[in-house]
Amino acid sequence: MNIKISNKGRCPLPSYETSGAAGMDVRANLTEAICLLPGERSLIPTGLYLELPSGIECQVRPRSGLALKKGITVLNTPGTVDSDYRGEVGVILINLSAEDFIVEPNDRIAQLVFCPVIHVTLIESDTLNSSSRGADGFGSTGKN
Predict the structure, then answer these.
(1) Cα gap 72→129, rounded to integer Å
(2) Would 49 be classed as within a structural domain?
(3) Phi and psi of 64, rounded to 5°?
(4) Is 126 a member of any domain?
């Protein structure tokens, strides 16, 4: 599938780093480094603008290495770029570590994953069919 992209920043286009990668690494389009203090969040520009076809979304997801090694993640994970949005793609990073984190210009900060979207029609009902799980909540599927 081809996706139109406009790069108004200084960074290279997102790319798959390996042949089996699901996400394309996206970079920080910054003119100077910024510091994320512990617990702080910031909208990081990418300089990228997408034209997605109807029925496709672009998910903005964390990079696993940044999350594990540095405690840096995407706050609204996954972030969604809708097919009718034409503004700049931004990445909301948050520092969940106890140390300052420096975002340098051109750093790989997140990954973009393109996914199909299914629109549904909600049908209001007072009753729902039963299931073997029923109303059991979080963690209930691991019970014996």
Answers:
(1) 41
(2) yes
(3) -60, -35
(4) no
